Amino acid sequence: MDSAAQPPVGTPWHQATFGASFVRFWRGYAIFRGKAARAEFWFWALWWFLISLVANIAFGAGVLTLLTDPSGLAAPPPQVEQALEAFNPFPVWGYLLSILPLGAQIALGLFTVLALASLMPWIAISVRRLHDTGRSGWWVLLAAVPLGNAVLAVLLALPSIDRAQAVR
Fold first, then answer.
1. Rg of the chain, C-alpha, whole Å
2. DSSP structure class, residue 12
3. pLDDT of res. 168
4. Which residues neighbour 164 within 8 Å (Cβ) at sequence distance 6 or greater?
5. Residue 167 confidence class, pLDDT cut points 50, 70, 90
C-alpha cells in the first residue's frame, strides 16, 4: 500500500509495514485520539529496540576502550570524592561522563535526545493502541508503577476489537 492509500493516523492500519510504522509514529506525534493496530505499535517497538541496540553497542564499545586502556584516566577531583562520601550523585555522574571516550559521549547524547523526543509519541501510540483493544488510554499510567510495564505490555498485545464489542 503506498503512502497515498494509507489511512490517517488514528485509524488502525492492520497491514502497516516496518518502514511505514516508523513514519506513522512520528506523524502521530501528539495524536491521542483514535486507534493504532498491533502492526503499527509492535513494528515501532522493533524500530526502538534496533535503535537502542545500536546506541548501546556504540556506548559499550566506548566504555570497553576505556576499560582496556585506562592509561588516560586522571584521578577523580576532590569534589567527586566528597560527593561519594556525601552520597551526592551529580558530581560523580559529571566525572564519569567526562572520562568517557568521545564516541561513547556522542552515542549517549544522541540516544538521550532521541529518547526525550520520542517520549510523547510513545505515549500517544500506546494510548491509541489501548483504544484499539477497547480500553481507556489512562491505562498507559501503569508504566509509572513497579511491574506495571509487564501488565501494560500484555494489554498492548491484545487483539483489536470492534467498537460494537467494546465495553464502555
1. 21
2. -
3. 45
4. none
5. very low
> Position of cell 522493533?
46
Torsion of CA 39, 119, 19, 3, to 10 degrees: 90
159 contacts 14 by C-beta, under 8 angstroms: no
pLDDT category of residue 164 using cuts at 50, 70 and 90: low
Q: Are 128 and 155 in contact (CB under 8 A)?
A: no
In this structure, what C-alpha cell is assigned to residue 129?
493502541
Please tell me the least confidently modeled range out of 4-18, 48-62, 90-104, 139-153: 90-104
Tell me which residue of 86, 13, 18 sits closest to 46, measured CA to CA: 18
Q: Is residue 100 a contact partner of residue 73, using CB atoms and an 8 Å limit? A: no
